[in-house]
Amino acid sequence: MPYVIAALVMTSVTLVIFVAAVLVPARGRVIHERLSALELERDRHLPRRALRTREKRKQIETLMKVLGETIASRSQDTNETWLLLSRAGYRRPNSVAIYYTVRLLLVTGLAGGAFMLMSLRGLNPVAILFMATVGGLVGWLLPLYVIRRRTRKRSRAIQLALPAMPDILVG
User: Fold this and answer.
1) N or C: which terminus of the chain has fewer CB atoms within 10 Å of its end residue's CB?
2) What is the Cα–Cα distance from 123 to 131, expressed in whole angstroms?
3) Cα separations in angstroms, 83 against 34, 69, 77, 78, 96
């Protein structure tokens, strides 16, 4: 029974990712060809491996942006999230969407992973559900912890740089 539930959870995660991929808006053929030509000309000096890595990163970012925008459109605190991310140094327009996507993927991944791991160890169903809940909670809170920690580090760096500012302005 736990394996059936685990399979259903993993299937639903795969379905969510597939739906996000389908929702990605397609570019017009002419625009796509022109952008590809410009990128090829700009990246002509880069090795093929770097180009493939860049292309994969763009595809992942696009998927994350679409999924995150779907989540963010239903969220009430998008402005607060953007303020939190901008204080941490994430100022790109799609940073809120990517943040929500990372949170969702961590929740599903850690909860599903904890569920699978505890099922394989043969624990009772209550312990399995408890560990899956703990995994999901960690997945939900971990990105917030990382962003707040980065905000504190960035604030500290700015405060340490402030005493040198008058010397730079005068000198």
Assistant:
1) C
2) 10
3) 35, 16, 10, 9, 10
| CA distances for 63 relative to 79, 117, 120, 165, angstroms | 22, 28, 31, 41
Tokens representing 165? 């500012």
pLDDT-derived band at 149 (thresholds 50, 70, 90) equals very high
Q: Angle at CA 131, nearest 5°, toward 106 and 136?
A: 25
Is 70 exceeded by the pLDDT of residue 18?
Answer: no
Question: Encoding tokens for residue 67?
Answer: 């999924």
Comparing CA positions, the residue from 100, 79, 93, 92 lying closest to residue 144 is 100
Sequence-distant (6+) residues with CB within 8 A of 109 are: 13, 139
Burial 121-130 (b: 16+ CB within 10 A, else e): eeeeeeebbe
Written as six digits, the tokens of 110 are: 């850690």
pTM above 0.70, yes or no: no
Evaluate whether 140 touches 99 at the Cβ level (below 8 Å). Answer: no
Other CB atoms within 10 A of residue 3 CB: 10
